[in-house]
Amino acid sequence: MLQAAGWKVNPKRIYRLWRREGLKVPRKQKKKRALGTGANACHRHRPERKNHVWCCDFIFDRTETGTTLKWLSIIDEYTRECLALKVDRHITSEDVINVLAELFRTHGVPEHFRSDNGSEFLSKAIRSWLKQIGVGTLYIEPGSPWENGYAESFHSRVRDEFMNCEVFENLRSARRQTEAWKQHYNEVRPHSSLGYLTPRQFSQQCISSSRTTSAFQRNTAVTQKFS
Description:
The chain has helices spanning 11-20, 93-107, 119-122, 124-133, 149-161, 171-187, 199-205, 214-218, 221-224; strands at 53-62, 68-76, 82-88, 112-115, 136-139. It is an alpha/beta fold. The longest helix has 17 residues, at 171-187.
């Protein structure tokens, strides 16, 4: 990060200073777990290019007064870019469709959409809508969140780097704080698996696999009832 900011640094000197000050970052122990046998698991159906596979999931937290808040995240698995991070008190399948519709307009239509078996993703409305547009659905096995590994990894970052560091006064402040963190994640925070580029930088270097939006445009009427 120092190098990205234009500083010339000597890694060995940084290490010596870090050690002299007694600073440590506990090394996380990887948990051994089954990868799962589901055909739609992330280790079986891997993203190969931008807009090849998007994944979606929910994560929860509370305001300082105890009100439950629900976040919807949508990630491009290949670029790791957070395409959407919507927070509200309640999020329905209709809300998911509206968020996806806007993303399809701005980012193109992905080939596949991976999610768990939550009612918001299994509703007849969203399954029919995605089928009409031509987006393949990859539903993971029930009770196997690790099969949606990219979403799980992203949510661990959301929890550690955002939710555990912020106090949400109310929904309005949560939305403001969420948008600021999303921008930082996409445009400032380097990602080790991307060669220490930010997701936005890596995304800009990629050739998108998304098809033309004609299929989506032909079906925009499907979303109008949710607008």
